User: Fold this.
Amino acid sequence: MTDSQRRAPWPLRTERLEIRPATPDDLGVVWGYRQLPEVNRWLGNAPQTRETFDELYLEPDRLASTLIITRIEDGLVIGDLMLRVGDGWAQREVIEQAKGTEAELGWALAPEHAGNGYATEAVRAVVDVCFGPLALRRVHAGCFADNEPSWRLMERLGMRREEFSRKTALHRSGEWLDGMNYGLLAEEWPARTEA
Assistant:
């Protein structure tokens, strides 16, 4: 777990969900939905075997940046989030001030739980943590333009489309696809400004 994540209030609870850091024991259930074609078609990494998946997710940085989403009512794991805190771009003279100031977000949900607002609820809670306890200045996320559920989620949360790039991402299908990147500043986050 990174220093930034230690400052976060894990486990995090919403009305219906609990979000907590991943452990090696979670990998089996995460593999269960991430290996499905309808999920992994949009993922940057989609290992073909459980062994390769475990090797990837057991890397310390990967495991430390993975959060597990469970339903409070039954403890069922329904998805995962990536929260990767990193440095903002800066000129050399001010580089220290940009360290640990922003986060990249990502998410995957088991298909049988899609359409219930769980992803929106979970990502909203993690953005609250980013702009609250973690005191970050910016969050960002990207997706293939064809991944409409992801970019619609970002727009529901008030994230700003910062880039629409034409055929810049080579998909594992061999096709060059359009990409989209979204961002949000702390001062733009409603939960932050209402407090």
About this structure: The radius of gyration is 17 Å.
